[in-house]
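fyi for ur records
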Amino acid sequence: MLDVFMETFGLNSIQVFLILFILLMCAVVVLFALIIEHMAKSAWTNAGEAMGLKLSGDSLKNYRLEGTHQGVALQIVARHESETVRTHNSSRTVRAYFVGVNVALSPAWQHFGRVHKKKPATLHEDNAPGIFSALSPNRFDDELSIHLEDKGVMRRIFADPEVREALLKTSTKAGDLKIFNGTLFIEHKKRVLDADLLKGYVDDAITLAKLLESRVASVQTNPGAAPAVASAPLDERVTYW
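which gave:
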């Protein structure tokens, strides 16, 4: 049958081998993509079932988990970015996958101001600290910007070293971090194919959210425990404005 094919199209053995090789490589690529998508769907499905969250979406470009876990309202969203980079004689497509965890905070955080990472990870930049800068107490790769409308309660909360270090530690591990309009948002530049990894991201976000909420409750319960206005701590990794 192969001989008939070669005679029909006038191909020699080398050309037939190249055609079969190309077809085999295409099949391998398709199979690999199907395996990755199956792993992703299993991971997100298993994580959703373990945490009691509802899954929507059909791929790593738009998976979404929503619901309540550990008494906290959550929304975990996957997104995808791509861009074709062209040079003089070639082009390539740059892709990146992100997963963001949104945690709803109490009303005290609705109009407190804003916290954000100055250099979030992007399609082209990971913002991962180097070996030496990661060990430096004065590293600037994970620098946070904090703007507080409330100069009393919130200033005292962010003057707490434990809160500040928890925010900076999370910022170092994550691609982006924001607290704005009553929501804590932590995003990782990662294609998540493992349910435990996804649950770990959620647990870290909930832990930070509960720390912030506990400090709000503590300050509101003991209004005389600290000065009405606390000065901003001297920390080169954090900018207050």
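The longest helix spans residues 13-51. thats all i got for now
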